Amino acid sequence: MRMEQLLSAQEAAGPRAMGTAQGVPMCNCPTTCCCWRVRSRALIIPGCQVLLDWVCHTLTGCHTKKLNVTKDVEEKLWGFLDSILHSKKLQSLIKEGKSINLRFTIAQVINDFIASCCSQQGPPVGVSTVLNCCQGILSIPALSYVYTAKLEMMVDLLNRLSTLTCHYLDSEEPITPQVFDVLQMSFTQYLQIQRQQVNPNRVFSHVLSHLFLPCLLLRHSLNTRSWSKEDDGRVRYNLSKDIRSKTETVLQMGLFQYELLSSYKEELLPEKDQTEKKKGSLKTLLKPVGCILEKLGDSSSFDSEIYASVVTSSLPLVYKLFLDSYCKDGNQLVCFHMLVRLFDCLQTTVLQKKEDSATLSTWGMALFALEQMLNHVLCHDVYNVAVDRIRHAEIQYHFYRKLSEMLVYNPCTSIPAWFRCLKTLILLNHLIIEPDLDDLLSCAWIDADILDSRVRKAQEILIGNLLQTYAKLRQFSKLFKEILTVVCRPATDELREPVLSPGLTEKLSELLLELPPNQILDIWEMILEKYETVILPDIKGDSDLALKLFSLASVLHCLLFNMKTMDNNTPVPVLVRFQNLMKKMDKVLNPSFKIIKSHCACTEPDVWIQKLCDASLLLFSTWLEVDTATSLNCSKYISQLGSQTISTGCSTEGWDLSLFLEDKDCWKKVVNLSTGPVSKYCLGLLCVQKMKQILMQNKCPSETDLMNLQAAASFILHHEGDDFFLTEYEPWDGSASLVNEKCFPVAHWHLVISNLAIIHLYMSAEDTNRIGKILLETFLSSPVEENQADKDTGITLKLISASLLQSGFFPEMRILQCSFITSIIEKCAMSKYKDLSKTLNLLCARSLSWHEDFFSAYKKGLPFSIANKTNDKSSICLANMENASQHILSISHSHSFVDFSDTDLDHLRSAIECISILSPDSVSPSDQSRCFLLLLRLAIADCSCQTIRLKSTCYKLLTFLISGKHSNAVCRVLYASDILEIALSSLLTSKWEFGDNTDLQKEWPHFIQMVQCFLESFIGMIMERKQSSLLNMEKFVTFVVNSISNPASSVWHFRVGHLLLVALNTVCTIISQCLQEHYSNKQRADSWVTLLNKAVVKMGTIIHQCLKSSDYTQMFPSFFVSCITTLLEAELIQSSLMGISSDKAEFKNIELYGGFCSQILRELYCAEGQVEFLKVALHYLKICVGVKDIQTSQEGLLIAILSSVKKLLTGKWISVLIVQSIENELTELFIRLTRSCTHDEFHIMMTLVLQCLQVNNLWKQDYKEPFAGVVLLKLLLSCPLNGDNGKLFWFTAPQTITSLVTLCKDSCKDRLLIPTIIVPVLEALALLLRQGETQLTNPHHVTLSFSILLTVPLDHKKPEDYYSVFLGVHEVLFSILQYHSKSMLKAVPSFLSSFYRLVTSVMHEGRQKGEKAGTPESDVVLQCARLVERMFTYIAAKTEEFTVFSAFIVSQYVNELQKVTLQPVVKKHLTEGIFHILDLCIDRDIKFLNASLQMGVREVFKELYKDYNHYHKTKNQGEEKYTA
């Protein structure tokens, strides 16, 4: 008890008591005295060894029960050991090489403690400290020998840690990384020891006895853990994967060593196959496979709940590790026998009785394990069909046959793995499943009832692989013979599923394009034979036969619709057979229609007659489509309808299809019995075919033809009803055979829209209006549509309508487009708002001909009252539009508003947004005016702030309409100034109090932008018309000025000020542009100046008042800067018209301009994320340069602007993309600066640039300074530098080039600097070299560039970075080649080396990697290949300089070409480029290349030279023949 008292006293007294005589006397226990100091990480005596021995001895005594201490004391002892192991003193002693020993017994104590923790419920107490101790020991090589010296000890630790980790993973507590870190470190240590072992049997024994099951259980726990947010992310994403990988490595290196292969062979192979029997080491394991399977078969090793799961997940792993180790050097037979043994284990442990419903989930796991093992067989090429048949008497084949029989005779169609197992067997050898092919087709396809989407996908993959396999073997007809046999069997279920699902239809259509036509014709013939001999004779009253008939019809429909169409290139025997089959199909269909005709109609048709109608109509429409398509594509084909024409006395009912087959009575009976969705859809298809046949006659349509066309169009449109789009529906996959009740609305709408080009010409006005209404309703999102949006597996109503509205064909259907716009107006004319509906009803009267061009008479200047007197409807249209416009004007004057609900606002927004899908140029003048008046009316309807989104949408769409070619049409019914007054008056009288509604506050900037865009577009349109533009502008400015209330009054609101600023800003901008055109009419120019002056005065007043408002900060700053800029520019234009220069003019708002300029200079670098503000601010600074009294001195202003821009470019948030977005504004600013600056100021600029380009900035980790310096240099290069400033710049150019070279070479060490420094340096260097053609006279300064080009990294980069660097290097080379050819002559090898890096890089990146074309990577490589081709062309143009090196260039190219296989598009460009270099080669060069190139490279060169002679040289010689 003495130790317990001492430790307790130490803990209670703390460090202060340790140094005093008070408290517990510690002088008699120096060892305990040191404990506190160790715990506080301040070990002050060199007694680490003593302390370690003491604490290890004490803990061992506690463990062996020789010392009787409490749990608390034991925990403190562990903590003491942890403190020593992690103390800095111990670490320093070890680094000094001091010898520190640890007792071996402490390792056993730790192992036992971890083992005891596994049995506790919840987190074990004290285990964290023990794990820290274990981690400390393993991490110190001088101490880890207690584990590494004894393999058994390390194995035991891994066993205990794995079990403890499983204990943690199986609990619901959050996972922490400690135990995983220790386990990872233990695995690492063990693997090092395992590799050093020389006795494979010993390693096998240890792994199998102690690690095999724990590792499998650990892997299972890691795979099945349901990770939560509380779990440590490093464990979930990193450590767990690493530990899982290490467990597999431990098992593979322990159980499947190469030295044990002979033991596995001895156990697995039969006597006759043991070619290496009695060879190798005498110390072989007797039965390694038996030992492994015995461990797996022992159910007592795991909990019964997880036993099956662990075994099924472990068997594939064991087989994978076995294959990875031994599946080479002809050991495939051993690997197969291993599979047999593992499958036997799977059977005995899991696959016992499938009939028991409780074992269905177990069967699922077992099938998943079997699938994985079969996939391993496939991936490792274990099964070679020829070798198995010749050498091994088909032993593998017979095993896989048994597997196939087991799967087929025990179908598990609810388990995806069952389908995948069969798929893998097919891929191994189709002969495996061929004896059971009919049963497989029945249970896995024809009679399978599958609802789960995952199972459906697995089924489609299986059947798809089956179809693909037989297609490749050219045995498709053989497979379909079995399919047809199964289809014609008695059905196991009355409601048999459709034979072809959407996925299988798509797969079959792909395969049919590759099949020989004779095989398709064989299948066609078989289907017709079954149809004629098996189904049709006994179909009356037999629903089962009718279902089979429809299955055959759907298969034949898919077959004929997706096969290649016959054309003039088709072999004659094939065409003859095709012709005969078309005749036979015609004859086979006749009995079907006769049965239908003879059937007595009843109230509800029987199932068999419905299915007979479905099948007959489906096949007949398919036959008709094929006949028509073949007639058009193949002149040798004789159409079956060739002799039939429509007589003038023919019936004009839409459903009458006697043109094609039978008589009218038969078709009347067919229509009456066709109540199913497939029949109705096929009748629509046949009516479309009827219309096509009439139109394809070689004559002008007669009145009877027109009546037939109109009747057919009406039947197509109406045979489904008018409200089909309101019913609930499902997406449709596009196949006629899969049309059902739920997807029929989609199929019918698709039929109408896809054939609208034919139908719309013969629709009545009512039908046109109906189609327009349905178009709008289906395009707008509905609840039904939203419920189906997540499926995204087929065609929907909205998708069909959107495709029509977005097509280029829709604007050509002017009547339909007009009807669509009328429907939009109708939807907005809500009756509960009388004033609104009164206006809009005038614009959407269905009885009027809105599509007619009733504006044409008014164009000639006729008044409305006498326009179009001959056409009453046109006159009414004009009158309605005039009345509606006057009503809108009166409402804007009376301020009569409505109060929309939130639902109404959403309803209106969704309706008017449909206007944006139209093409503004395609909208007629009348429709454009109607839409304009609609939007104008809605914009002024409600004055509440809740309508801000509706108003934004209205002004956005008004701007959209103004962009059309009939934008001025609305001015024929309403004056332009009145439109502006209407728009602005409603805005100024609206209530803009948002309160605490942050959503509305965020919407305000966007709303202001939309209003500004509208005003700019509309006023711009007024100016373009040049019709009373001055009068309209005077009226509008007068209205705006009169609308400005006293800022001191209570009516004033800062948001009203914003709106007034928008109006005045737009007016000033437009008038300023107008004045810059220099009107010859002096009086007119004076009028514009007067108008501008009035706007400037009021605008300055409003800006002052808005800035005083406390809420002005809610507005985005770019708006105010833009207004100030416009105001300053307007005053400058006034001064220039008066002949006063900017540096002498007096400005009305000079204090305002100076204040804004100073504020911008101070805060420019703080504008993070405000690109628009940066643009307008830089533009404002450009205007300020040269303006008098902006600052105390212009010299100070220029330096201040330069400093502010430099500070902006060095900001942490600035990026390359931001600089690119403001590059134009920066360039314009610097052009103005360089023109206005003095020589001294330009000297300051150059000094600042050179300071930024110094390489010591990189050494200080300051990457923004060099970036800013390069950008400033590029800006200076964009300016026209003349006189002394130009001389100064080019005088410092050598120093600049040296700085760029040094900067770039240092930056190449860090790939993160590629976009920020390396690429800009290359761009700046290229610009410098181009502009310095006459200035850079020293060749050394030019050739310095090559040191950059030879060091810039060209590999392992993102596509965008790769292209930027590639383009930069190319541009520098081009600048040297084009502008410094004399300097290049002294450094041709460096030039070619730099260019060769580009060629090598693009060939490496452009090699074939299995990637699809069109990816970002392939597009980038293609662009780079074009650059290389261009450079080859430039080099070839420099004949004198490069003739000597042409053979060298070709040699380098073919040497690299021999190493890679290029993508065709890349190779095309590179080959075209090298052909130009071959033009420089003379015969001596070609002989030299043939003699000097190596064998493989020489063959590549010969092929290249052959192509050169064939394609390029002959072409050039042909061109030279006609050259003077």
From TrEMBL:
<feature type="domain" description="Nucleolar 27S pre-rRNA processing Urb2/Npa2 C-terminal">
    <location>
        <begin position="1321"/>
        <end position="1516"/>
    </location>
</feature>
<dbReference type="Pfam" id="PF10441">
    <property type="entry name" value="Urb2"/>
</dbReference>
<dbReference type="GO" id="GO:1902036">
    <property type="term" value="P:regulation of hematopoietic stem cell differentiation"/>
</dbReference>
<dbReference type="InterPro" id="IPR052609">
    <property type="entry name" value="Ribosome_Biogenesis_Reg"/>
</dbReference>
<protein>
    <submittedName>
        <fullName>URB2 ribosome biosis homolog</fullName>
    </submittedName>
</protein>
<dbReference type="GO" id="GO:1901796">
    <property type="term" value="P:regulation of signal transduction by p53 class mediator"/>
</dbReference>
<dbReference type="GO" id="GO:0005730">
    <property type="term" value="C:nucleolus"/>
</dbReference>
<dbReference type="GO" id="GO:0042254">
    <property type="term" value="P:ribosome biogenesis"/>
</dbReference>
<dbReference type="InterPro" id="IPR018849">
    <property type="entry name" value="Urb2/Npa2_C"/>
</dbReference>
